[in-house]
TrEMBL record:
Keywords: Cell membrane, Membrane, Transmembrane, Transmembrane helix. This is Putative ABC transport system permease protein. Its main location: membrane. The chain crosses the membrane at residues 6-27, 62-81, 88-111, 131-153, 183-201, 213-231, 238-257, 269-288.
Length: 303
């Protein structure tokens, strides 16, 4: 694999890693299967792209993308906590609504950002090499997000948020409003996801209404890969692990495409298979261990 491809993998892994942190926040910390991801990722890209196209500063567009993601998370939280809609269905409803909202924001199915100033062109204007501009921004943004997220989750509110995911009934008995915790968690999660969408759109040079399809699977794959290979013994290690999982996932995809083991059109299927195998690994291990024990028992009985 050439150095340019490796740098590209690292860039995408870091930018996607911010989205993965958002998925980790709901999937692992809050224990909330949030499918808003597919819509809020595109929402961040749509807001940033539209803001840039109409002539405003790309940093403003990126900031507005964060606000849009936060609002999307609040809507999902409202549907679940106030209207008593199940988490899965609440996320699906938000995702479906966001498809139309994203089309409304963009005005068409795709916005091109070619020859437009983005946050990356601003970074290049500061004297940073064009070759490393995306990598430096991705590394800086991811490190800041990990640090801020870690510090937040160590606060009293953050601990209550983590406790809500661990044992909702217990923390509610201590006087914590779990509905508020869920609203905070969902809002923060989708803020990160929309932020990632804004960065990816500016990196790729376009925003597409379908670019968020399957994001939840990509996020889950990265979370599981990171946890399996690096572990999650401490909070900080877990946060770093999921970002590393994102990088490893992009590396695997790049290798598979380079070796032409999978057609580009089959990447979603390939990812789904990875997630299925990872999620079912305890059952597979139990089956293999049980089969080994049976074979050993039959061998001893034969002796």
């Amino acid at each position: 694999m050439s150095a340019s491809i490796f740098v590209g993998v690292l860039e995408l892994g870091l930018l996607w890693g911010i989205m993965v942190l958002g998925v980790y926040l709901t999937f692992r910390i809050l224990d909330f299967p949030d499918l808003t991801v597919d819509g809020s990722f595109t929402l961040g890209a749509a807001i940033a792209a539209h803001t840039i196209i109409i002539g405003y500063d790309p940093w403003l567009g990126t900031a507005l993308a964060l606000v849009g993601g936060a609002l999307a998370g609040l809507v999902t939280g409202f549907l679940h906590t106030q209207l008593r809609i199940t988490p899965l269905l609440a996320g699906i409803l938000s995702m479906i609504a966001l498809y139309s909202i994203n089309l409304r924001i963009m005005g068409k199915s795709m916005i091109s950002l070619l020859r437009m100033d983005t946050i990356y062109t601003d970074i290049i204007s500061w004297g940073i090499s064009e070759y490393f501009s995306v990598l430096i921004l991705g590394l800086t943004a991811t490190a800041v997000v990990i640090l801020l997220l870690y510090l937040f989750l160590e606060t009293e509110v953050g601990l209550a948020l983590r406790a809500t995911g661990d044992n909702e009934q217990m923390i509610r008995s201590l006087g914590v409003n779990t509905n508020t915790m869920k609203m905070i968690g969902l809002s923060l999660s989708n803020t990160l996801i929309a932020f990632s969408g804004a960065l990816i759109a500016q990196k790729q040079g376009f925003a597409d209404v379908g670019m968020g399809i399957g994001m939840i699977i990509v996020g889950l794959a990265s979370v599981i890969i990171g946890e399996v290979l690096i572990g999650n013994l401490t909070l900080l290690r877990a946060l770093v692990a999921v970002v590393m999982g994102s990088i490893i996932y992009r590396l695997v995809i790049a290798i598979v495409l380079q070796l032409e083991l999978v057609a580009p059109t089959d990447l979603k299927l390939f990812t789904a298979i990875i997630v299925t195998l990872a999620l079912s690994s305890p059952v597979i291990k139990e089956f293999v261990a049980g089969r080994g024990a049976r074979e050993k028992g039959e061998k001893n009985a034969g002796c």
